[in-house]
Amino acid sequence: MAALTDLTISEARAGLRARSFSARELADAHVGAMERARELNAFITETADAARAGAGASDARLARGEAGPLEGIPLAIKDLFCTKGVTTTAGSHILHGFASPYESTVTANLWRAGAVMLGKTNLDEFAMGSSNMTSYHGPVVSPWRRKGSNARLVPGGSSGGSAAAVAARLCLGATGTDTGGSIRQPAAFSGIVGLKPTYGRCSRLGIVAFASSLDQAGPLARSVRDCAILLGAMAGHDPLDSTSVDRPVPDYEAALVRPLKGLRVGVPKEYRVDGMPAEIDALWRQGVAWLTDQGATVREVSLPHTRHALPTYYIVAPAEASSNLARYDGVRYGLRVAGDGVDGLYEATRAAGFGAEVQRRVLIGTYVLSAGYYDAYYLRAQRVRTLIARDFARAYEQVDVLLTPTAPSAAFAIGEKMDDPVAMYLNDVFTVPASLAGLPAISVPAGLSADGLPLGLQIIGRAFDEETVIAAGAALERAAGFSHRPDGIAP
Amino acid sequence: MTAPLVEGATGPWEVVIGLEVHAQVVSNAKLFSGAATAFGAEPNSQVSFVDAAMPGMLPVINRHCVEQAVKTGLALEARINLVSVFDRKNYFYPDLPAGYQISQYKNPIVGTGTIRLDMKDGSTRTIGITRLHLEQDAGKSLHDVAPGASHVDLNRAGVALMEIVSEPDLRSAEEAGAYLKKLRAILRYIGTCDGNMEEGSLRCDANVSVRRPGGALGTRCEIKNVNSIRFLQRAIEYETQRQIELIEGGGTVVQETRLYDANKGETRAMRSKEEAHDYRYFPDPDLMPLRLDPAWVARLKAGVPELPDAKKDRFMAAYGLSAYDAGVLVGDQVAADYFETVAKGRDAKLAANWVMVELFGALNRLGKEIDASPVSAVQLCGLLDLMADGTISGRLAKDVFAAMVETGKDAAIVVEEKGLRQVTDTGAIEAAIDAIMAREAAKVAEYRAGKDKLFGFFVGQVMRAMGGKANPAQLNDLLKHKLAG
Q1: What is the ipTM for the molecules in this complex?
Q2: CB distance from A112 to chain B under 8 Å?
Q3: Chain A closest-CA separation from residue B94 CA (Å)
Q4: Is the predicted pLDDT of residue B274 greater than 80, yes or no?
Q5: CATH code that applies to domain A4-262+405-480
Q6: What residues of chain A lie within 8 A of the CB of B93, using their CB?
Q7: pLDDT value at position B102?
Q8: What are A464-476's pLDDT values in tens digits?
Q9: Under DSSP, is residue A117 helix (H, G, I), strand (E, B) or coil?
Q10: Strands A74-78, A173-178: parallel, antiparallel or unpaired by DSSP?
Q11: Residue ranges of the domains in chain A?
Q12: What are the b/e assignments for A267-280, b being 16+ CB within 10 Å?
């Protein structure tokens, strides 16, 4: 039998139910892996004791035949989800010492389903980044290495700790959040599956807010099936989140076996960006062939406002962030740095508590909302956002899903692209449009770059049609047969 | 009615006033959280995670507060906007935990409406309402708990307020006071705000400017921090004089925010830093636009009770009251109900007189509100009925009422205890008359010689001899008869 840490969630679920191993053994194996892989810096907080205790409780429920759908499954939680009594940092210094007295709805849903928490994973500060380089707790190291190189690579971001932990077999699955690509891009960089659901599918309550109209929780795991299982437990209406949508959660796992015949797949021509590496383009074509081979029909579609998506995103998201982050003022919780009077307190606390990227975005956001600039920036960006959403709606009159690369490159090395924020922002060029339109999308590992790094393909679906996204993602997964493993993981 | 003018050194000036009223919504829970809203609770005992702006917490609109705002809009005969939007008003202050106030900026829940003012001379003025929107209250900074430190009480943070903005239609401090009184009466009629200015559930900012009659609008100043109708009027009067003297002295009014200092009775400019805000309004992405079902609004409309204007018109028509009397009585729903209880089946003008003169006078002396009156409406009915059936005279009734105010007892009991029952026994009255006529034989002779005016003297003497209890009509008849010889 494979190592317990090598199992997928569905395999582990079967093994636990068959009593082939206990939840406690499964937890111990992952706690050990987590502790041996600390050099990856994937976790900010390890909760080994809670994991073992939770696993013990799961074993009891398994023995009583009361197992929940995720009973005994060890998960890593992005440290943007508030977890009761366990510190939540959002990757920032400003939440220093903060342990929330409440549980996020998504994690509460997971625990109710029987899952076990291993710890809280590292992330870009307040989820602002595509590399995990902006975390106050230091960068996450990808378990992947370029062929013949020992350069330490980024896992992508912002859910980089979650992606690295899943890829390095430190957990069976993880939660992430995706604002402009923060689940899909690190999934692609790390050779795993990442699913961003429709905006409103998962509750945002208890998730530290970055950009409220874009933030959405979703799973990262090593198979499409595992993501479907996790999403089924995470999703659902929450009356305490006014943007969460009251519609039933379908059986996502059942969608995996949907035949592809008759599925209409669109390839957006505007995604063929200048300077895209040939191997990415080739993989994209390969994806078209894989889907065609399984009975789908593929056609080119147009999303004419695509080139405006990144600038739009980098107005809307910082604008909301500048307001969402105003609460970190040193008055009620987290870091407090004394200053002269209350304004001095604010300035000293926020100067010390926020890193450079967060400060940059707060400044951008404050600027675009300012009197005299609001119309030219924020209001215009919202109008363009509407046009981008309309592009998708028109495309979906002709096709059922869209197929694109997830990111314009494979993972880069720690320290690369750090001097040019705009180059860093370009990582999200293929993921941001779906975020702006609130659409569900999945990244599936589809191949390796010439230097041996994972590359992902993205399926974007209609709002609340995660099932078709999962079906198409599963088809890519079957065809790609991606079985590569990162070298840089603990044994 | 023409606009009242203020005479300056260089000629007459017209005052232009617009009011922004913040009315706390009567609701058990806050606008976006389930925390309680009771006044006077221990500091920070009514604060939810949402109110404290804990990370990841989200606002959820309180349906009851929306209903209260719509009811208020309907009572102001205003346009109800079926789609409205909540915006964030961003600024840093320790009593504003999120760093933004959730308010309504471009798309308020209620649009234009009107308020009718009843002026002292019986005329009416119609004042335009610009808008009503829902917003969160802030917490309270406490600077006097410990030296060198400020404390924050978040009990009030997130409590629902209605900001009700008038058009600049008001032309005097008196009108501004009448507007605020009328608005408060309406809010109390429909139960959407308790109107308690001392506890801060009704607060008012005034925009004041002056101009030559018929001229272009002058530069306005906004007076903040006014917490009573009296202070509002004083602040406006002070500010009017200040602006007139400033302009007449060759200066110009600067648009600014001024604080009213009730102790000094003056307004003074706030430091410019206190008002140099760019609020960076934008739609709150945590909240969907608020959409109202027209049928629901229609049901609320059907449930709006009789309001002061309609009640005033009815009191005038049904009870024959003057515009002034009716206006005073409907100004307070409890007073109006009190009056109606007393007037029903009785002489309405007499009832109005008793309520407005005797009752209001007594309450005034006691410093009590009518809902704490020592004499209930039913008790006053009892007194009036004793007058009507001749048990006591109108003169004695005032004494009985005074005893009722003092003791809270029913009129009949006071009459019994004090033996004030009117004497209608002809024999007893005749005996008293005979005694007085015997004592005042000289005056009887004068009367009989034609000095008719002495009749009143005899009435007074007999009444005094009988302790005021003689039935006046009987006394008159018998005395006339006996004096005639």
Answers
A1: 0.96
A2: no
A3: 7
A4: no
A5: 3.90.1300.10
A6: 342
A7: 98
A8: 999 999 999 999 9
A9: strand
A10: parallel
A11: 4-262+405-480
A12: bbebbeeeebeebb
